[in-house]
Structures are given as C-alpha cells and as structure tokens.
Amino acid sequence: MSALSAKPGVRHSVSDWSNNNQLLSATAQHQRHLSSAIRQEGRSLRNETSCKTTWDESETSHRLRDRVWDVARWKDALEACAQKVDEEMEALTLSKEQAEQALAATVAPLEVSTECLTLREGRRGHELVADPVEEQLKAEAALTERVQQVLQQQVDRAFEQLCALQEIRHQLTSDLQNKMDALDTDMSCLSLTIKSPQISLKTNPTRIPSGSSTPQEWVQFSQHNVLRAQEAMQASQKMREDTSLVRAQLQNDLETQRRATEFALRKRNHHEEQARDELEWQIEKTEEEMAEMEADIHGLDADLQAKTGSLKLAHTRLEARTCRPGMDLCRDEVQHGLVSEVHQLEATITALKQKLSEAQHSLQKMRLHHTLMLQDLSRKQEALSLEQRSMAARRRLAPASGPAREPALPVPLANSSGRSSLQLLQ
Fold first, then answer.
1. Which of 290, 303, 335, 392 has the fewest CB atoms lying closer than 10 Å?
2. In whole angstroms, what is the distance from residue 265 CA to residue 373 CA?
3. What's the number of domains the chain is made of?
4. Which residues contact 250 (CB under 8 A, 6 or more apart)?
C-alpha cells in the first residue's frame, strides 16, 4: 500500500482560526448594527417625507382652492362689469339713435323755412318788405342749422364713446376668457391625485414661463380693466345726460322759434287781409265816385251846351237890335238887360268850363289812381296768397295732435366678437 500524499498550502493555526471566526462574527454584528441604523433612519425618513409630502400636497391644494376662489371672484367681477358695459352701450346706442332722429327731424323745418323765404321772395312792388316774418324765418333757419351742428356733434361724440366702450368691452372679454381658462386649469389641477392617469414626469417643470406676471401685476391688470370700464361708463352716462338735456333744450328753442315765426306770419297775414280789404273798399268807393263824377261831367257838359245856346240867343238879340233906325237905336232896359245877361252867361260859361276841366282832371286822376290801386290789389292778393301758402307749408311742422308715438326699440349692439351677449368657450 502506497503512502498518502500531502496537500500543498499554508496551514493556519487554531488561534488564527479562532481570530477569523471572531472577526467574522464581529463584522457581521457591525454590519447588522449599521443595517439596523440605516433601517431606522429609512423608516424615519419615510415617515418624515410622507408627512412632508402629504402636508405639501395639502398646502398646494389649499393654495389652489384659494387661487380658484380669487380667480372665480375676479371672473364674477369681470362678468358683472361686462354686463354693465353692455347695458351702458345699449343705453348709449339708444341715446345716439334719439339724437339722430332729432337731427333727421330738423330737415323738414329747415326745408319749410327755406321754402317760405323763397315763396316770399315772389312778392312784388311795395309788398316786398323786410317785415318781422322775414326776420323770424331767417332766425328760424339759422337756429335750425345751429341745432343740426350741435346734434351732429352729439352723434359724433356718442359714436366715439361707443367705440371706446367697444374696445373696453373687448378687453374685458379677453381678460374674462383668460380668467375662465385659468380657472379651468386650476380646477383640473385641484382634481388631480397620485392615482390620476393623467399625471406623468415632465421635462423641467420648475421653469418660469416667458410672459409670467407677479400676483400684484395680475391683480393690477384686472383692476385697471374694471377701473377703465367704470370711468368709461361714467363718461357715457354723463354724455347721455348731457345729450338728453341738450336735445330737450334745442327742441324747446326750435318750438319757441316756430311759434314766434307762426305768430309773426299770422299777424302779417292779418295785416295783409286788412290792407286788402281796405284797398278793395277804397276801390269800390273810388269806382262809385268815378261813376258820380262821370255823371256830373255829363251834367256840366249838358249845362254848358245849354248856356252856350242861351248866350247865342242873347248875342243874336243884341246884334239884331243894333239894326234899329234913328232914335229907336236906344239903350233901353232891354239893351241893359241883354248886356247884363251876356256878361252873366259868359261868366257862367267860364265857370262851367273851369269846373268841367277840374272835374275831368279829377276823374283822370281818379282813373289813374284806380289803376294803381288795382295793380296794388293784385300785388296784395298775390302776397296774401304767398303768405297763405307759407302758412300751409308750415302746417307740416305742427306737432301731431293724435296719440303719442311709441318710442323706437333700441337696436341690440354686438360686442367685439359680433355676438349680442357674451358667450365664452368653456
């Protein structure tokens, strides 16, 4: 039998073996101690971070709820302000339309005043006078033109204010839309949990987006929009009040001037009728006097012819008695009587001729004046016809005596998006 072969290698002593066992035990115990400390620290860290995370999530949710409340409060404020702006725009639009209607209503008075002035230019002769009617008509036309200018200015101002309100309304709509979008975003964030399927890790989520604003700037922006809207509404309300006051004052001025013009026209028409009636009476009496004068002229002429015959008789008798012979050619009482008769007849004939000439001259003057009066009567009748036509033309300006007309319904005014009411996308 062969001998066992010895294995090569270092042999350790029993003490080395014991030391090694002790080292292994000590190392194991140390590792276990370290592990236990790490486990305790890990548990403490887990508990601490869990509480911290839960608290942070709670605080974040609380802040989100506060933010949602702030945004919702500003959204309500902006909606209320936008509604007031819409109401003010509708009221201002109605005021503007009323001013435009008042402006359109001045066209007829100006046309009537111009027509009356044109008609009265057709008067002729002494009837073409610068009377109070012409003065009132010119004043009425000038007042109407001034009223048109003032009303047009009011309409232009109202249009400009409407444009300003429209721009402010657009700004409120944009801010309100942003508030609603932000509210939707924050409400969505508030509804998320760790179990929500929408959550995921994002790239650089802590970055500050460009265009970000501070909370103070955020509040100031909405405050500025509301303040601008309030100032614009106050200006619009004052403008509506001023426009209403100005429109009422102008209407009173126009009505006062219209009454003054019509009073002057009626007064002038009355004077024209009086002058016409007086002239017709004068013409009638002149015609009667002319007829009597013609009769008297015929009488004077007939009497003159008769006196001429008597004078011929006296002349013939005197001439015939000059043929008496001798002492019979005596200047007796007959001779004296015939001479006296001849003188008397000659004086009478002279007087009759003079009176006949005066009567004929007077008749000629009456005929001439009668012609002038007829011409003036024609002009007066024509002028009176023009006055009556003017009065008839002015009847279009008389206020309606029937029931008051219903006010025109306001035209709905669209906002910047073209819709009559605010409709934002949810």
1. 392
2. 24
3. 1
4. 102, 147, 150, 151
